[in-house]
Amino acid sequence: MTGAAIEANGLGMTYGRKSGWALRDCSFRLPAGRICALVGPNGAGKSTLLALAAGLLRPSEGSVRVLGGTPGEARPRIAYVSQDKPLYPQLTVADTLWAGAELNPGTWDREAAARIAGPLPQDAKVKALSGGQRTRLALALALGKRPELMLLDEPMADLDPLARHELMGLLMAEAAEQSTTIVMSSHILTELEGSCDYLLFVDGGRVRLGGESDDIVAAHAVLTGQARDLAPHTVVESRTTGRQMTALVRKEGPVDPAAWDVTEPSLEELLLAHLRSPEAPALLTPSAHAGQEVAAI
Amino acid sequence: MSTLTPARPSLRGPARVVVRQHRWTLWIAGGLALAAVIALVATALWSAHVVDTFESGPCSAEGDPGRSCYQPVRDYLDSMGALSGVFNLAGLVLRVLPVIVSAFVAGPMIARELESGTFKFSWTQSVSPARWLAAKLAVPAALLLAGVSVLTAVLTWARSYADTPYPVQWHDAPVFSTSGVLPLAHTFFGMCVGALAGLLIRRTLPALAVSALVTGTALTVLTYRRQELWPPRTLTGETLNAKEGMWWVETGDLTSGGERLTGTVCSQSASEADRLQCMTDHDITSHYLDYHPASHFWPLQLVETGILLALAAAAVAVAFRVLRRRTG
């Protein structure tokens, strides 16, 4: 699979003249078949990005293409679980699953939905469910749709650790079996780190890091040694204690191992360093560059 | 079973979900409609029975009934008055229905989904926002088409079934608005205004209130202006020979030159001599009356229906446009 699950070009969204830009000048590409962590602080634009990809909003500028078409065209092939898990409160669990089947004729997979929703009381009304139960039901609907792309906005926030572990496992098994692309957002990286092989780091309405998690980590290094000029490397963050200096840099060529003590940063360190240094330039690995597909042909 | 290419969903799925969502409202509305039909039929039959009983007796409501008939005639008129009150009540309900429908479509059906976020559930299944809205219009449209037609037909039949001493005039607003095709046109108009208000306002209570207000105002204005929707006929002469069943639009005086003096210039005169003097002073030679004959019932009904359906179609077109501009 080499197609793009999501490709954004100069994507921008504002909810009104006064509220500023929720997302601005976003260009990236998410290759199909990846499990992508969409991370960033609260208010970074993660939810807006997912809602745009799901076709719930129309971009104020730029464009987003999903599975090779507009989000509207791709609607039957996308599943989306919103942060607030909107479900009809007056319907029962069974009614909600029935509605899923009615609204997704042709694609609905009862067993897949039942695997997730099984433990729920089938005759309980949605409004009587706990937050975690609602999440379970929302995920059941998403999986029952047999989507090619799943957009999950903070999916695990309401779950206890046990349920989180179980549902994450089911999700990953399903994704592996169907080669589903998954985008999961969170402001807590550790929640996703183990499961995801792709990363989109959004901050202040822009994509600041995008690409394979391993490649992004490998592009950076933590250098410790005597304080001196770090050129040609791009400094993301540096701290000097007396004559000793610790710096997180983006490598622009080989690092002299004699001059520096070199270690690889953890993904979390990397993100925290970028959060503390808003002026650090963006980094997109080649596969995350919008327009790649065109260039390859 | 999953297939490779997802089938394009028809309106059936979303429509069934709309019915399931609002099933209690639908049960209650259906029950009330059935109760209304039963009440109307029962009232009509009972009225006919009361009339028969009275007419087979020695008394008559016409002329001087004679001393022994005072009480029977009063009882008869009282009970017929009470029975025609049932028709008036049913007519009132039918006239308020468009406002209720408008408020319900705007608030609980559409704005509540946008306010609470449940629209995201529908829009991210295989149902486009346009189909979601289409289902929300199709379900009430189909049910109201059936329900309002039946209610109108039963009410019209019930009103004319018994030979009541309180006959209704075709042009009285409570009658004209609740006969023919107008109840349907009013209800569709209310529904479409509700859809647009719900989409634009996006909050349940304000949408409900605005929609009810707009629908109520529009229909009230139309009720007061409806005699202008079709050119009236005119009757002129020194004495006007007005007949039963005419809808008086405007009456006044004519000068010898044929000029119209609206209103009643000389009606305030103290005596007949004064009145004649006044007429001479104003050069009034005859009178005129603009009126609608009973044959104008359908032209008036159809023009009003046309206006309302055109407005309703415009509201729906704008609603779909708003939806398309808002979503990807």
Description:
The complex is a heterodimer of chains A (297) and B (328). Chain A is of the alpha/beta class and 297 residues long. Chain A folds into 2 domains: 210 residues, P-loop containing nucleotide triphosphate hydrolases (Rossmann fold, 3-Layer(aba) Sandwich); 60 residues, no CATH class. Helix content of chain A is 30%, strand content 30%. In chain A, strands 5-6-7-3-8-9-14 form a 7-stranded mixed sheet, with helices on both faces. A 4-stranded antiparallel sheet of chain A has the order 11-12-10-13. A 3-stranded antiparallel sheet of chain A has the order 2-1-4. In chain A, α3 runs parallel beside α5 and α4 packs antiparallel against α5. Chain B has 328 residues and is of the alpha+beta class. Chain B contains 10 helices and 4 strands, in the order ααααααααβββαβα. A 4-stranded antiparallel sheet of chain B has the order 1-4-2-3. The N terminus of chain B is likely disordered. The chains are: A alpha/beta (297), B alpha+beta (328). At the A-B interface, β5 and α3 of A face α1 and α4 of B.
What's this, in brief?
The complex is a heterodimer of chains A (297) and B (328). Chain A has helices at residues 46-53, 71-74, 93-103, 110-117, 131-144, 161-178, 190-193, 213-218, 267-276, 292-296; strands at residues 4-14, 21-31, 35-39, 61-66, 78-81, 149-153, 181-186, 198-203, 206-212, 220-226, 234-241, 244-250, 261-263, 283-284.
